Amino acid sequence: MCGDWSRISKLKTSVLKKSVLSLAMGISTVSADNSDSYDEALIAYLNDQYEIAIEHLKLSAKEGHAQSKYLLGTMYLAGLGTEYDEYIGFRLCKEAAEADVVDAKFRVGLLYWEGEGTTEDEEEAMKWLSLAASAGHKGAEEVLYVMMNEDFGFDC
């Protein structure tokens, strides 16, 4: 794999793991009306019980919980506990990004860049990655740096 693209690919594959850890650290900030479903989802996820996590995430996402939408979307994108579905994954991640979940903004930027679950759109990719970077997302900062400063002529 080419050097520049490999760096972006490695960042993408670490997004889910880092996102779940940051979501897990924020358990106490979840509103009372959907915290039980979300907490149960995180516990199940961290114990590799993906089917149980999916069910709890669906409940809290249906109630509008943005972090649940993001984690559920990433699970669809990875095929964890459910069939892989890039379109549902993209939609859920975008809803979370629009609700100001920083990790979701980063993921949506990558999805637009790659055309996964949506039409490939470099302008939208840059927009979402910039929003994530502005909010302090280090991965987004690195991807933007690579995108703006490296030649993507994949002639490996």
Portion of residues within helices: over 70%
> Which segments are poorly predicted (pLDDT under 50) over 5 or more consecutive residues?
24-33
Q: Can you summarize the main beta sheet?
A: none
Mean pLDDT equals 83
- For the secondary structure, the number of strands is 0
- General form: elongated
Query: Helix count, per DSSP?
Result: 8
Distance between the termini: 8 Å
Structural class based on helices, strands and sheet pairing:
mainly alpha
Strand portion: under 5%
Would you list the SSEs in sequence order as H and E? HHHHHHHH
Structural Rg: 15 Å
Q: What layout of secondary structure does this protein have?
A:
Elements: H1 3-25, H2 32-46, H3 50-62, H4 66-78, H5 86-98, H6 102-114, H7 122-134, H8 138-149
Helix pairs in contact: 1-4, 2-3, 3-4, 4-5, 5-6, 6-7, 7-8
Q: What does it look like?
A:
It is a single chain. This protein is mainly alpha-helical. The chain contains 8 helices and no strands.
What attributes does this structure have?
mainly alpha; 156 residues; single chain; 0% strand
Produce a short descriptive summary:
With 156 residues, the chain is mainly alpha-helical. The protein is built from eight helices and no strands.
